[in-house]
Amino acid sequence: RPLTGGSLSRPANRFPDIFGQSELLKTYPYLLPCSISTIFVSIAWVVTYFRLKETVSRRTSLWELIEGGFFRQSYAKSCQPSSNVLVNPEEVQPKPLPLRALLTPKVLTIAANYATTGLFHMAFTSVLPVFHATPIELGGLSLDPPRIGTILAAQGAAHGIFQVVFYARLHDRFGAGPIHTTGVSSGIPIVILFPVINALARAHGIGLAVWLCVAIQLALTISLIMCYQNMASALFIRVAAPKRASLGATNGITQMFLAGAWIIGPASVVSVFSYSTQEGHDAWLVYYFLIAIAFFAIGVSLLIPRDPSLWED
After folding, report:
1. pLDDT category of residue 213 using cuts at 50, 70 and 90
2. Domain enclosing residue 25, as ranges
């Protein structure tokens, strides 16, 4: 996605021999990368729809869901088996718990970890391209969109390779809890590198020292993304659910907390960054803000055990 957006935006200007005559692409300079992203999403949807196996043994129609919501009592009666019908105990599916019963300390702890880690991750990923595109004299790095897209694409590729090659070994050696805490803790040096990169760019220009610090910063984000994207946290969601039938609802609760963090993170950090770049304001204000979020996420991560099996009943 970053490589597509950075390389194919404004194609009429970047590739005049191919797209220079297209008035449509001149009017809508981001149509081409958005269209390519839409094609990939559509392919993923088709593969998911036809190839993934349904986990629910009994499918419920839309009308049954509406009937169950508005006419709960009659719907429950219609779903109960008749007294003179023999039911195989193995075919009886366990009923999920109500929402209030799911708000256990374990579930709330995992939801808080998802929210705080997601808040920092979204804040960082929102300010990173803004920092790269902001002029050096205003506290950024003055990079153009193709370079920014290449950097973010390299970060994604490195994360995928590291996850496949090293994650299982690290999990077996240290456990899911320390991996999560270490990943969140990497946010502190990640934030510190922002002013360091800008200071080097001011003093020596965009040279080897700047690119080395950029590479170190992106390497540190691998551990942050690894603990965030349903790796260590997903293992805890499974054991935090009070019962197997409530696993979907438990995951829904954590995703709700995460969605709230996704709303707050980008809006808040970009606003603070814009405020800090104005003359007369503290240029490091956004970094203080990010450091505070990182420390808060680290404190919450210490509430989970080293091994998810310690939470299993």
Report:
1. very high
2. 1-80
